[in-house]
Specification:
- The chain is α+β, with helices and mostly antiparallel strands and 363 residues long.
- It folds into two domains: 2-121, no CATH class; 166-351.
- The chain has helices spanning 11-19, 44-53, 74-82, 90-100, 102-107, 110-113, 124-130, 138-147, 158-166, 221-228, 267-284, 298-309; strands spanning 2-4, 23-24, 34-38, 57-58, 72-73, 115-117, 169-172, 177-184, 215-218, 235-243, 247-251, 311-312, 315-316, 320-324, 332-336, 342-351.
- The strands form five sheets. Strands 7-11-14-15-9 form a five-stranded mixed β-sheet. It has a three-stranded antiparallel β-sheet with strand order 1-3-2, with helices on one face. Strands 4-6-5 form a three-stranded antiparallel β-sheet.
Length: 363
């Protein structure tokens, strides 16, 4: 079967297909003049997928106590849980996976044809050793931080969290531009005052506790204006910030989108922790209302502080965390632990003309 790079969105698979350096047309997705891969000629993808699908067990072999509601067809789960295929058609996914793993299909067809499940999801001994959260509950973790011990908790496996962070490293070169917005008068705010607030004015944020300086930036001027939540007819000053040295950050936007094919990744361990990683991603992108308590920031502050504490040979590994914008779906934010890594090189004053309010009935 001929498939191509455009059939997939997983970077590891795309890299393998491109490494064959064969150009052609794809009969499956109809893309032309793309890198193609012949499943009858190569076995690279077969070896990669074999490790991933090995974590699944056919429903007929699962314990009677395994919830039937947690079983689904392999092709369906590969689409919905692993972000592998560009085309979300189950029939296309089934065709590709059975052709890529055709030898496995010959002697283990029920794995591809029956509903399947991951047995270790309900294996308490396995979860105790491999779950990111020691009680396997995000709510327990959050409650412990809020009401029991703010700074030291045994509810999270920090070694495992550090390992997951290593899979979502994102480098930035000196000279990279980000933006910061502040509500101002029509006279604006001077560039030298556009940075992070001084310690005495540093309030609680997603990535910092009160009294700890942190520079919050947006990928575009538009993103940072949205994040400021300025009102109609307000004036805002947008600062243009330039990175002064190469850095590496943790891209939390990708924490639930790690490729299962990265070398060294334990697919099973990742699978049983995807729900927890989704929680981290959702918490970073959670909308905070004026009526919400600053305690609601505690879980993300804890994670940010841990990322900030990671060092190797005495050298800080990460200089910030990146997360999706709460207010601007197309944008993202960067929380920089050391505000001195950026300098404001220009400012622009804007007047807010209108605000588009959208609503829904709550009750």
């Amino acid at each position: 079967m001929i498939i191509c790079e455009k059939c997939f969105c997983d970077t590891e698979i795309i890299s393998v297909i491109q490494s064959k350096e064969e150009i052609g047309d794809c009969p499956l997705c109809k893309c032309k003049n793309v890198y193609v891969y012949d499943t009858n000629k190569y076995e690279d993808l077969s070896l990669m997928f074999d490790e991933l699908i090995s974590i699944y067990t056919p429903a007929s072999s699962l314990p009677d106590s395994y919830p039937k509601s947690d079983t689904r067809l392999l092709a369906s789960d590969l689409i919905n849980s692993w972000n592998i295929f560009n085309n979300k058609s189950e029939s296309n996914a089934y065709k590709m996976i059975t052709e890529i793993c055709k030898e496995r299909y010959v002697y283990d067809a029920e794995l591809f044809e029956q509903p399947v499940g991951i047995q270790e999801l309900y294996d308490q001994d396995y979860l105790l050793m491999h779950s990111l959260l020691t009680t396997n509950s995000w709510d327990d973790f959050v409650n412990a931080l809020k009401t029991k011990n703010r700074f030291h908790t045994y509810y999270v496996n920090l070694n495992l969290l550090e390992r997951f962070c290593s899979y979502i490293r994102k480098p930035y070169k000196a000279g990279k531009i980000f933006y910061r917005c502040r509500i101002s008068t029509e006279d604006g705010i001077p560039a030298e005052e556009m940075g992070a607030p001084p310690i005495e004015n540093a309030s609680d944020g997603r990535a910092n506790a009160r009294g700890i300086r942190c520079l919050y930036l947006g990928d575009t001027a538009e993103t940072t204006i949205y994040e400021t939540r300025a009102g109609a007819y307000d004036y805002v000053t947008v600062g243009k910030f330039k990175l002064i040295k190469d850095i590496i950050v943790v891209d939390l936007k990708k924490i639930n989108q790690i490729s299962p094919f990265i070398e060294g990744l334990d697919c099973l361990e990742y699978a049983i922790n995807k729900e927890h990683l989704n929680k981290i991603n959702n918490e970073m992108g959670k909308i905070m209302r004026r009526s919400d308590s600053t305690l609601d920031y505690v879980p993300t502050q804890y994670i940010a502080d841990f990322v900030k504490s990671i060092t190797h040979d005495g050298v800080v590994e990460y200089e910030g965390i990146e997360y999706k914008s709460v207010m601007h779906n197309e944008g993202y934010n960067l929380a920089v632990f050391n505000p001195n890594l950026f300098e404001c090189i220009d400012t622009q004053i804007y007047g807010i003309d209108t605000i588009d309010y959208r609503k829904h009935i709550v009750q």
